[in-house]
Amino acid sequence: MATRQELSDFLASVERRAFRQAQFAVRDEDTALDLVQDAMLRLTRSYADRSPAELPLVFQRILQNAITDHFRRQKVRRLWTRLLSSLPGNDDEGGERDALDSLPAEPAGDFGGDAAERVEREQVLAIIDEEIRKLPARQRQAFLLRYWEDMDVAETAALMGCSEGSVKTHCSRANHALAAALRARGITQ
Amino acid sequence: MNELRFTASIRRALDESAARLPARVTQRLEAARAAALAQVPESVEAGSASRLAESSLAAARLPGARLRESRHPQAGLPETLTHPGSRPGSLSRSGGASRPGAGSGARTGRLLARLAVAAVPLAALVGGLFYIDEIEAQRHAVETAEVEAAVLTDLVPIAAYVDRGFGVYLKNSQQ
Asked: Which residue range is the domain that position B34 belongs to?
């Protein structure tokens, strides 16, 4: 049974990685923070009596479920929004819609002092982040759980709800895709 | 590239970027941790016992608690939740003390039948919604493709459309 101090130490040790994992998945800082907070609350509310050794796996399961639930909710919300917006009389502009409006705005150029001050290492980290974000969701999930969270293949498979073979395949593909992408961007070991 | 070395270097990079999170993020994480820990009692061991007691008391305080308990005599819940007028162990609401659980099978069957009847139109509604969603998505994709094709085959370069001045010019010329 974990003590309060052990719970605190555990949460402090995983919170940043949990946030990054959630951020990779949902691509939004605030949403990622909300998901991590929910996961922490659920852990201390329902699983505080677990032993310290069990906490990493339990917390990962809660976090992954929270991320999955987020996507489910988002899908349902999108479905209703689309259905409601397709009803007649819901268009302010008399039904005309400009497809260019849906194009994402270009990121603002950062040509100020910040760019000059950036060190090379930060650029490399940003590129690695970007390439990890570009990985397909399942590959990224398997890669992060295996190599960042130190889960073994069986634990990763249990968390992802797939077979151990699938985990190995996802990890291998993620490795190759990431290595190739980084090599293409001039990042080698 | 050696796979182990590669994953180790990625792991280092991930650790490094996690360590460099902006202050607003780390502050919110700290606040989240504090909020999570606030609901844990000083001693988790003592806390779990008190939580159990609290939940029992809370259940006893609920107005429908007695009714709910009396419907499930086999649940083995505390005597405090029994019907006040009945003997300990005689938990049946409809006076079925001598036959605990009698009629529960029939009730469950009726409930299941009612649920099944209610589920059919619900399933049809959900199915219909997903079908409409698919149709809508398809229509939207076709529309977008048409517009994109028109834009790409246009004489005006695509960059012109994101130019605010050009947009104003187009609006004015349409008027």
From this structure: 1-39
- For residue B170, CA distances in Å to A27, A119, B63, B118, B164 come to 35, 44, 68, 55, 10
Q: Establish how many alpha carbons lie within 13 A of residue B22's alpha carbon, considering only the half-sphere containing its beta carbon.
A: 5
CB B33 within 8 Å of CB A7: no
Q: Cβ of A33 and B32 within 8 Å?
A: yes
Is residue B121 situated within a structural domain?
yes
Chain A residues with beta carbon closer than 8 angstroms to that of B36: 11, 37, 40-41, 43-44
Task: Please give the model's pTM, rounded to 2 decimal places.
Answer: 0.55
Q: What is the DSSP letter of A148?
A: I
Contact between residue B21 and residue A16 where contact means Cβ atoms under 8 Å apart:
yes
Q: Does the residue A108 lie in any domain? A: no
Closest C-alpha among B134, B171, B135, B160 to residue A96: B171
Other beta carbons within 10 Å of A4: 16
pLDDT in tens, chain B (175 residues): 578 888 888 998 999 889 989 999 999 999 999 999 998 866 554 544 444 444 444 444 444 433 333 334 343 333 333 344 444 433 334 444 444 454 677 888 888 888 888 899 999 999 999 999 999 999 999 988 888 787 777 777 777 777 778 878 877 877 6
What does the block give as tokens for A117?
Answer: 């001050």
ipTM for the predicted complex comes to 0.74
Q: Is B170 found in the same domain as B132?
A: yes
Across the interface, of B14, B42, B137, the residue whose CB is closest to A20 is B14
In total, how many domains does chain B have?
A: 3
